[in-house]
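STRUCTURE:
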């Protein structure tokens, strides 16, 4: 069993930065707080958010009517999309109470509350029986776990044999990086309440050791880069005002760290310190 993680920093981060996400990132067509995916069918930011969902769903091979666990569901964007697109039975979990409330409200607004339910839970320690789900879905959420191997063990436990897992995650290019590289990487991560990110090899090994087969990991940085660049541009434009508002104590340390993290994430990407990946696997 994984040791219980202190989830207070995650709750504090998402509570403090809700308005940043709400006004600068969320789109009425999708309540996703993840990055977007640009391909030949993407025309704008709203399309990109939906296209990331579509790309991951295609890699997983989601069937209509599947029972899906959205592990780290945010305010419900992915779970709602899955219910609408696949007539799926979706459970979204997050350790952040305010996200559960917003997700439930958005589910009602989109008319899928009969197929989606949301609960406050830690994806490392869920209350679900063994073999409860056909699919585990986790988009930019494993990063918040200290013990990432525990995510894979719990995912395998609640997946039925033959069930599919799909994740999208930030992955470091080496461990360790240079001291300067580690400092830049962790300036971003600390600002976003992320303890650390893992290498691709570590993710593959954890999946295999937990009982997953057919582990496939692809680099999607080129498809996600326009979305990352968009956030960096917004953060760079806002930076002078953010510094002033922090000096005046209008914005909190957490809120200021969110903007700093958005700048440093792209700087770290350009220096080759991390990449964005999509991993899928099958429960043996």
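SEQUENCE:
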């Amino acid at each position: 069993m994984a040791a219980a993680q202190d989830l207070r920093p995650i709750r504090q981060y998402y509570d403090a930065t809700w308005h940043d996400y709400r006004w600068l990132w969320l789109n009425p067509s999708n309540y996703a707080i993840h990055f977007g995916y640009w391909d030949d069918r993407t025309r704008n930011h709203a399309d990109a958010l939906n296209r990331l969902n579509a790309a991951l769903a295609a890699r997983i091979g989601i069937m209509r009517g599947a029972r899906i666990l959205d592990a780290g569901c945010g305010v419900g964007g992915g779970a709602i999309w899955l219910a609408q697109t696949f007539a799926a039975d979706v459970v979204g979990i997050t350790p952040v109470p305010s996200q559960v409330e917003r997700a439930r409200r958005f589910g009602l607004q989109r008319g899928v509350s009969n197929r989606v339910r949301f609960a406050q839970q830690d994806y490392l320690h869920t209350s679900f029986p063994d073999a409860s789900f056909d699919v585990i879905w986790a988009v930019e959420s494993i990063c918040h776990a200290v013990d990432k191997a525990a995510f894979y063990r719990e995912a395998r436990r609640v997946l039925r044999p033959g069930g599919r897992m799909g994740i999208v995650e930030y992955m470091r290019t080496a461990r360790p990086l240079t001291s300067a590289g580690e400092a830049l990487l962790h300036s971003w991560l600390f600002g976003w309440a992320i303890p650390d990110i893992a290498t691709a090899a570590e993710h593959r090994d954890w999946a295999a050791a937990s009982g997953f087969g057919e582990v496939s990991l692809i680099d999607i940085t080129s498809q996600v880069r326009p979305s990352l660049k968009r956030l960096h541009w917004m953060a760079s434009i806002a930076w002078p005002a953010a510094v002033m508002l922090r000096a005046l104590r209008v914005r909190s340390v957490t809120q200021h760290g969110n903007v700093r993290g958005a700048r440093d994430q792209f700087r770290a990407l350009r220096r080759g310190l991390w990449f964005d990946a999509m991993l899928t696997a099958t429960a043996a």
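REMARK: The chain has a mean pLDDT of 97.
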